[in-house]
Design brief:
Elements (H helix, E strand, L loop, with lengths): L1 E10 L29 E2 L1 H15 L8 H8 E3 L2 E2 L2 E3 L2 E9 L5 E5 L1 H14 L8 H11 L8 E3 L18 E3 L6 H10 L6 E4 L1 H10 L3 E7 L5 E8 L6 E9 L6 H9 L1 E3 L10 E6 L5
Parallel strand pairs: 7-10, 8-9
Antiparallel strand pairs: 1-13, 1-15, 2-6, 3-4, 5-13, 6-7, 6-13, 8-10, 11-12, 14-15
Helix pairs in contact: 3-4
C-alpha cells in the first residue's frame, strides 16, 4: 500500500525540460507536453532524474543519506526499482502579464479540478474535508463566465482602468463570501487569491499551446564565431506545476530525502549553465 504526498514546483527561472521535438521548423526545441491535452508537463522520468542528480551532488552520501537508503529510494537496476513512485508534474498556474499588475497567476477550472481530484483520489479524504469547498468552487465557476474570458477575485476588474491579461479583456469580478476559501487557495495552490485569474478552459488551453515564450539562442563555435541561431520554447519563471510522490508505507524512507527535497533549490531540465530550470519544491496542503 502506498501513501502519497503532493508537491508544488515553482519555476524561479525560465525552464526548458525538452521533448526533443520541433514545431515544423519554427521552434527548434519544444518543451515536454501532455500527449492528450498538449499542456506543459515534466515527465516523471525527468523529475526523478533531476532530483536524483541533485541528491547525488549536494546531499553527499553517505554522511546524510547512506548508499543503501539512496538505492532504496531511487533503485539500483531495472530489476531493482526504487520504492518511491514519481509521477508527472502537471501545470497548475501560468504567469501572464496584465495591465493592472506585473502578472497574474492564471489557470482554468479543469486544470484545478484535475489537481484537486488527484488529491482526493490518492489521499486520505478524512484529512482533507475542506477540499470539497474548493472542488465545489471550481465546479461552480464553469457556469459563471457568461460572455467573459476570465474571472478575477479582487477589485481590479471594477477599477476605472481597463483590465487586460495577455490581450484578453472580457473579465468578470467573482465575489467569494466564504473567507476561508482564501486560505485554502494559498494552502493548496501556493498563490494569493487576489493575484489569481481563472480563464475559460478553451482559452487557457489556447494560451498554453500558442503563447508560451520562445527565446532566440545563438550557438558559438570553438573559434568564437556564431554557428547558428535556434529558437527554444520555455516555461516562464513563476509558473507552477504539481506532482506526487508515492511512498510504500511498509518501508521507512530516509527522512533527509524529503527535508532536502523541500529546502534546496533544485535544477530541472537543460541549460543549467545559463540559469535555466531553478525551481523550489514545497509540500502542498500539508501532504495528501
Amino acid at each position: 500500500m502506498f501513501i502519497h504526498n503532493s508537491y508544488i514546483i515553482e519555476a524561479l527561472t525560465n525552464t526548458h525540460v525538452g521533448s526533443g521535438d520541433t514545431s515544423f521548423g519554427t521552434v527548434d526545441n519544444l518543451i515536454q507536453k501532455d500527449p492528450v491535452t498538449s499542456l506543459p508537463v515534466f515527465h516523471s522520468s525527468s523529475i526523478k532524474g533531476a532530483i536524483k542528480e541533485h541528491m547525488e551532488q549536494y546531499v553527499k552520501p553517505p554522511a546524510i543519506i547512506p548508499p543503501a537508503d539512496f538505492n532504496l529510494i531511487f533503485g539500483e537496476a531495472e530489476d531493482r526499482p526504487g520504492v518511491v513512485k514519481f509521477y508527472d508534474a502537471r501545470l497548475l498556474t501560468l504567469p501572464l502579464r496584465s495591465t493592472r499588475r506585473v502578472f497574474y497567476h492564471c489557470t482554468s477550472p479543469e486544470i484545478i479540478l484535475d489537481y484537486l481530484s488527484a488529491i482526493k483520489t490518492f489521499g486520505d479524504a478524512t484529512r482533507f474535508d475542506n477540499l470539497e469547498k474548493l472542488l465545489n468552487l471550481f465546479n461552480g465557476l464553469k457556469s459563471q463566465f457568461d460572455d467573459s474570458e476570465f474571472l478575477v477575485f479582487n477589485n481590479d476588474a471594477n477599477n476605472e482602468r481597463y483590465l487586460e491579461i495577455e490581450d484578453y479583456g472580457k473579465n468578470k469580478k467573482y465575489s467569494i463570501t466564504d473567507i476561508s476559501i482564501n486560505g485554502l487557495i494559498t494552502k493548496y495552490m501556493g498563490v494569493d487569491i487576489n493575484n489569481l485569474a481563472v480563464f475559460t478552459d478553451d482559452i487557457f488551453y489556447r494560451i498554453c499551446k500558442d503563447s508560451l515564450p520562445v527565446i532566440a539562442r545563438n550557438k558559438i563555435g570553438e573559434d568564437g564565431t556564431s554557428e547558428n541561431l535556434f529558437y527554444e520554447e520555455v516555461l516562464p519563471r513563476r509558473s507552477r506545476l504539481w506532482f506526487m510522490l508515492g511512498f510504500d508505507n511498509n518501508i521507512t524512507v530516509n527522512g533527509q530525502f524529503e527535508t532536502k527535497l523541500t529546502s534546496d533549490l533544485i535544477q530541472i531540465g537543460a541549460n543549467a549553465s545559463i540559469g535555466y530550470g531553478v525551481t523550489r519544491i514545497s509540500l502542498a496542503g500539508g501532504g495528501v
